[in-house]
Amino acid sequence: MRFFKGILKSILYPIYEARLFRKLYKESTPKHVGVILDGNRRWAKANLASSKSGHSAGARKIIDFLNWCEESKVRVVTLWMLSTDNLSREKSELQPLLEIIAETVEALSKFGRWRLQVVGATEILPDWLNTRLLDAVATSPKREELVVNLAIGYGGRREITDAVRQLLRENLAKGENLESAIDSMSIEEISRHLYTAGQPDPDLVIRTSGEQRLSGFLLWQSAHSEFYFCEAFWPDFRRLDFLRALRSYAQRNRRFGK
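Given the sequence above, the corresponding structure tokens read:
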């Protein structure tokens, strides 16, 4: 019975996907999509595999996802690949994870289709990782069709703290006193010092694995974002799941707090 159900799904899902894709209006497609790539370790546990295998499976999913974004006319994607909290994991798990991240970014660069940008507190990353990330980003194409932000060593609170600190230093360097520097702060000025400065805020934030929280992802930028939570672990995330997220987004009435 399970065998026949599998055959039926393999026949019907592509038809359903194509129908869903045709129904989506390109003018309602989000321009910036943020993704919390969650569930790699739980996927590994469910599949009786190692954590490293789970992270590798998640890394392979990224190229598929970027292809789906490209065909849907998304312009900016932010992928949360490593949080500041992740850096406190046991070395036995962290080291292979960092290596997988480096290999993934290098593979994305060699793919030659997307402009890459690392966003995060790179100064807290190991020097060897920083070197490989910078080299990969430098050799990625400068095309603007799809910009991919790689959130590595990223934390939302850290980003806001860094932005305020940088703004204060900038104003003090201009000769302003501390009181004047503080008074001159504004939402616009802080935004100008975020890791994603110059980019539109995310219209849609997707989190996989069934968890329904942001965990500090794009705290400042997501003030007016729409959220979509998917039950699938990240390695199992399908094009169909992505199209459902886009459909959900298109059906919402965005009021931007008004």
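The beta strands are 32-36, 76-83, 115-119, 147-154, 204-207, 226-229. Try to locate this feature in the token string yourself.
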